[in-house]
């Protein structure tokens, strides 16, 4: 299963549209692009494998594997990228501003359920990140 994240970049945050095939799953927020600086930037466009992960801090969530120059890039809930993210990706139900959104937990549960079902069936789950063509 391949999820595709279409990003739009702004100076104060990065917004995205997450799709499976052509179906909208949710929106996403991330930090602005700052040359892939650890904990300060969103990650580079590319294709990354998603795997299940558990931590005390985030509970069940997803992690992106093999991100060049980076580690611990997670998909977890957050509503404000600048205040709550350190390079990770947060699903949101609606976008409210660059790097900001609402109802992240509901959107996150949807993404986690979808990816986990595929992973549990031993399917390869990838996230392809691309720049929005309309920029």
Automatic annotation (TrEMBL):
<dbReference type="Pfam" id="PF18925">
    <property type="entry name" value="DUF5675"/>
</dbReference>
<protein>
    <recommendedName>
        <fullName>DUF5675 domain-containing protein</fullName>
    </recommendedName>
</protein>
<feature type="domain" description="DUF5675">
    <location>
        <begin position="5"/>
        <end position="114"/>
    </location>
</feature>
<dbReference type="InterPro" id="IPR043732">
    <property type="entry name" value="DUF5675"/>
</dbReference>
